């Protein structure tokens, strides 16, 4: 230090510069390492936690729990998991290897200064991570390693967080009174649905196709970018009630680790609010509109016309008009074009990595524009329980893979229409300890009953058709007779 001060004060610049240069080289020769520091708070904002610090912390947790001797334990927010991290004042190092480059991480705390008055977090709270590596790896570390650490840290955050289920509703409109507060558009709860593709009962080939499609989507960020397409995908799930549409959405969310936004379209005031709701969703999410056929004017012009006619009729009657006035105000003004914009307008591209799912029991009611390919990329039909789907349910509910009754059940399932929900209900033990055969027998009996009902129904339909046919014939004969009698009449008249 003395030599350095003397050098600065007593020697001219022409001499000090080369001396400094060579002494630096000498220092590098004995200590050829670089250290980068990552503080917990942004350099220019004492209140703003640095997102890179958080990502590094997550990335280092695995290394620290395997290597460090001094660890700090905490419970991650939103989860019950205990997280072990490197103790910040232990001056311990954990090593990492990347592309055969060895690097060392350590953590530290800035010591508080007794003379400084701080308004942000106390200096003692100012923690940091330090990364040390050989000078010759500078480019590799700065260009690739740091990017790798930050990306991995973010991925761990997504994997570890508790996923949320968001819902919108009209009640959110109040926003807690003050108009200065930003109105909350979505209410949230922790999403904890146990459904997975493994427990979803459907044809295995079809299931594999859907899983591949979803996985491929979630890994195709670069592909979507290269073809200039927004990173989103639409799925239309259709089929009778109880065939597993909602269950499949939960399985999708669990597979991809996405949040779910359950959009109640009838509670959305207008297209502007719909757009705001969309902007307020995060990436890595599934936006669901269930029973879309019941939601809107998405059923095409036919229903709109019917509605207009009804409205006209009601307006003629003053009593009905008064009753409708209060009701009308609450009716959603979202239009089909607003919804189309929601799916593939400019705003829909913001954020990226989103899946939009529509479910319906009546696919034929939907406006073709809404479900054309490109908007709803995959149309998935969920149907009545087949034998393969039954095997999944038998495994789920009874832990059975084979049984003598399976043959009979296969036969009956081929002849009847029973939803997976009904099959599951029959398979579920009704009293604790009920034997598996008893549950299978209950299903057989239920299937036989459905088969009989279906036969009766078919018979009734056939009889009705026969009756109709008979009536038509009788009417035809009567009309013919009438026509011929009127022709006779003409002949007579002509004759006259
Ligand atoms: N394919 C399936 N695989 C596993 N379980 C199913 C399946 N289908 C239905 N279930 C069971 O039946 C219940 C109802 O199913 P779900 O709500 O998914 O049907 P849905 O098609 O969405 O019905 P809706 O059209 O009435 O909303 C679920 O809780 C689930 O346990």
Describe the structure.
The protein is α/β, with parallel strands linked by helices. It has four domains: 1-26, no CATH class; 32-111 and 121-160, no CATH class; 165-173 and 184-296 and 332-381, 3-Layer(aba) Sandwich (Rossmann fold); 406-471. The chain has helices at residues 2-10, 13-30, 51-67, 138-160, 204-218, 221-226, 245-256, 271-279, 292-295, 301-316, 318-330, 336-344, 368-371, 387-398, 406-415, 420-427, 436-495; strands at 33-39, 71-75, 82-86, 93-98, 101-109, 127-134, 164-167, 187-190, 232-238, 259-262, 285-289, 354-360, 378-381. A seven-stranded mixed β-sheet has the order 8-7-10-11-12-9-13. Helix 8 links the parallel strand 10 (259-262) and strand 11. Helix 8 (271-279) runs parallel beside helix 12 (336-344), helix 14 (387-398) runs parallel beside helix 16 and helix 15 runs parallel beside helix 17 (436-495). The longest helix is centred in the last third of the chain and has 60 residues, at 436-495. The protein is elongated. Residues 200-202, 241-247, 361, 420-421, 424 line the site of adenosine-5'-triphosphate.
Strand order of the largest sheet: 8-7-10-11-12-9-13
Strand content: 15-25%
What is the count of DSSP helices, taking H or I runs of 4+ residues?
A: 17
Q: If you consult CATH, what is the topology of the largest domain?
A: Rossmann fold
Outline: elongated
Largest sheet: 7 strands, mixed
Q: Termini, distance in Å?
A: 142 Å
CATH superfamily of the largest domain: P-loop containing nucleotide triphosphate hydrolases
* Average pLDDT for all residues: 81
The succession of helices and strands, N to C, reads HHEHEEEEEHEEHHEHEHEHHHHEHEHHHH
Point out poorly predicted stretches: 172-182, 490-496
- In total, the number of domains comes to 4
The hetero molecules present are: adenosine-5'-triphosphate
- At the first level of CATH, the class of the largest domain is Alpha Beta
